[in-house]
Amino acid sequence: MTGVSGLTKRFGTNTVLDNIDLEIEDGERVVIIGPSGTGKSTLLRAINFLDHPDAGTITVGDLSVDAARASRRNILALRRRTAFVFQNYALFANKTARENITEALVTVQKRSRADAEARADEVLRETGLLDKADSYPAALSGGQQQRVGIGRAMALDADLMLFDEPTSALDPEWVGEVLDLMRRVAEQRQTMLIVTHEMQFAREIADRIVFMDGGRIVEQGPPSQIFDAPHDKRTRDFLRRVG
Ligand code: ADP
Ligand code: MG
């Protein structure tokens, strides 16, 4: 089991996450939607303490961490169980595609260089980027860079993959190939928590849609219910705006 309970995050007097409870089953694909500024990124970042929550419990696999009493060791253990795909790819500019993937395998997972490179090449093959293994990010298209970002996350074999608007920084021409790769990851029944504005994609791959507004979960359910028969006026208004 994975999820958060009572998760609260404030920036100054601004309560950005207000007592969020969210349980995710192993292999479940959960998509978070909601207006901008509503706390979606903060929720993902709080799960691995990129933003330190003020209160709540985070559980990933067999590890539960209480935000109020989290030690450095707890946080590192939590990060080892998660993999993050960033909106802006967050690749190391001075490392090749292969080196971007091996980096955490060697430094965080303490794998041997040979083992890390073998895993990187597997992932480069899966992402269709083996011929770009020695290219630096600047020589890759936006779509290829984000596929490296996703490959880097895949290589970690994490219990939970977190995607924060992975296509929203891309030129429209590159969105399709990145969504295709995410579909393939989803088919492997990888546990995924995804923030996206790609509603058609969300409808296709999500087991559950979570609609957030104002730092709270307003409603959640299967895609057909949220998209075709939302209960809450805020959900209806949001979907009308983005639809
Ligand atoms: P979303 O991803 O849904 O657009 P965010 O989680 O990025 O929303 O932001 C939620 C709120 O938290 C916004 O009001 C934003 O300004 C605020 N916020 C996010 N990060 C910080 C930060 N590091 N410092 C201060 N306020 C922040
Ligand atoms: Mg965001």
Explain how this protein is built.
39% of the residues lie in helices and 25% in strands. It is α/β, with parallel strands linked by helices. The protein has a domain at 91-157. It has a 6-stranded mixed beta sheet with strand order 6-7-8-3-9-10, sandwiched between helices. Strands 2-1-4-5 form a 4-stranded antiparallel beta sheet, with helices on one face. A hairpin with a 2-residue loop joins strand 1 and strand 2 (14-24). It is globular, with a radius of gyration of 18 Å. The model has no long low-confidence stretch (mean pLDDT 97). Residues 11, 14, 16, 36-42 line the site of adenosine-5'-diphosphate. Magnesium ion (MG) binds at residues 40-41, 165.
Largest sheet: 6 strands, mixed
Ligand names: adenosine-5'-diphosphate, magnesium ion
The geometry reads as globular
The helix tally amounts to 9
Structural class call reads alpha/beta
Radius of gyration: 18 Å
The largest sheet has its strands arranged as 6-7-8-3-9-10
Question: What is the string of helix and strand elements?
Answer: EEEHEEHEHHHEHEHEEHH
Q: Which percent band covers the strand fraction? A: 25-35%
The low-pLDDT segments are: none
Roughly what is the average pLDDT, rounded to an integer? 97
Which percent bin holds the helix content? Answer: 25-40%
Q: How is the quaternary structure best described?
A: single chain
**What is the total tally of β strands?**
10
